[in-house]
Amino acid sequence: MAVPTKNHCGSSSLIGKSQAAAKREAAEEELRASAGFAHVFGMLLASGKPAVGHNCMLDLLHAMRAFHGPLPATWDEFQRTTADAFTGGLYDTKHMARQHDAVRPLVECDRS
After folding, report:
1. Of 38, 36, 39, 52, whose CA–CA distance to 86 is shortest?
2. Is 66 a member of any domain?
3. How many other CB atoms are there within 10 angstroms of residue 37's CB atom?
4. 3-class DSSP state for residue 14?
5. Which one is predicted more confidently, 28 or 111?
6. I need a labelling partner for 22 at 20 to 30 A (CA). Which of 7, 9, 72, 79 fits?
7. 49 domain residue, yes or no
8. Count of domains forming the chain
9. Within a domain: residue 36?
10. Does residue 112 form part of some domain?
């Protein structure tokens, strides 16, 4: 059986069953791979172990939105939600370095 499709120019063509099956299988594998990271993220949250990243705020926002649920409307709600999710703590080494007086000069750019 052939499956009608459109090529990149917009004209119709036929793809044999084996090609359509290969496309479907590739799409299913992509779905499994992305679901795999959702499983890893869930295991990280369930472990209760500390999570450590470097300059990870944007990554955290994306991960929380994609795998934990909609982002809260306010910063305070986001902090509570994140603290509840990461029961072992969440540490950003860049933020930590900038908070320590002895380390700050080593990590900040000279802005003079």
Report:
1. 52
2. yes
3. 12
4. strand
5. 28
6. 9
7. yes
8. 1
9. yes
10. no
